[in-house]
Amino acid sequence: MSSRTLLLAGVAALVVGLAGCGAAIALATANSAPQAGGMMGGGMMGSMAEPMMVWRQGAGPVSRPQDAVPAALAAVRGRGWDWLTVDEVHIFPAFYEVEFNDRAGFKGPEVYVNRTSGDLGPEMGPNMMWDSQYGMMGATCATPRSESDARALATRATSTALEDGEQHHGYWEFELKRGGAVVNQINIQDCTGAVINEQLWQPDMQGTYAPSA
Question: Is beta strand 195-197 parallel, antiparallel or unpaired with respect to 107-114?
Fold first, then answer.
């Protein structure tokens, strides 16, 4: 496949992904009141293959979350982000989401690893749109939003219990917990307070893998 064809395919995937994210923001904003039980089992975009933008093509099935870790590390280091360390891996039916730690207490990028193909690429949504360090169009605010303010906005936007909050460059991310288990995440943008609930495209997690130190 020629480099021009690959470039056009990447641009097309990006356009589709950003359009979908825009729709997610609009829907989340329009439905900011808590919904009984939330959205379960994947939302309006749950049938799309992930990752939508491929940084690195895989070599086939990735059967265990621990096998997703070295592949994701190679992908971010290939982009020059040598300082990142692995935080944990969220396990979804069709993909793994590898989360990274950044410096100074911030969280880094989140990488999808397709469980069937092994393809790797950035998580869609705030990870691509709001992250001012690792994303594509994130904004930096003069006064970053506090965790308590972001948590209050997230609480009003979902009926699912909120757990730990993580500060990314440009947004806050909170875990959503149901029945004693973390099932998904919700995000609050620093500058505007916009809300994106990842249940719009992600199904419930099947578990979490935390690499040993």
Answer: unpaired
Reduced to 3 DSSP states, what percent helix, strand and coil does the chain have, rounded to the nearest 5?
30, 25, 45
Provide the b/e sequence for 55-73 (b: ≥16 CB within 10 Å): bbebeeebeebeebbebbb
Average pLDDT of every residue of the chain: 83
Lookup: tokens for 149:
């303010």
β-strands 195-197, 120-122 pairing: unpaired
CB contact at 8 A, 82 and 102: no
Q: How many helices (H) and strands (E) does the chain have?
A: 4, 9
In this structure, which amino acid lies at residue 123? E
Which tokens go with 194?
A: 């916009």
Nearest CA to 125 among 7, 31, 17? Answer: 17
4-16 burial, b at 16+ Cβ within 10 Å, e below that, comes to eeeeeeeeebeee
pLDDT digits (tens, 9 = 90+) for 35-87: 333 333 444 444 456 899 999 999 999 999 999 999 999 999 999 999 999 99
Radius of gyration of the chain (CA): 16
47-57 pLDDT per residue, tens = 456 899 999 99
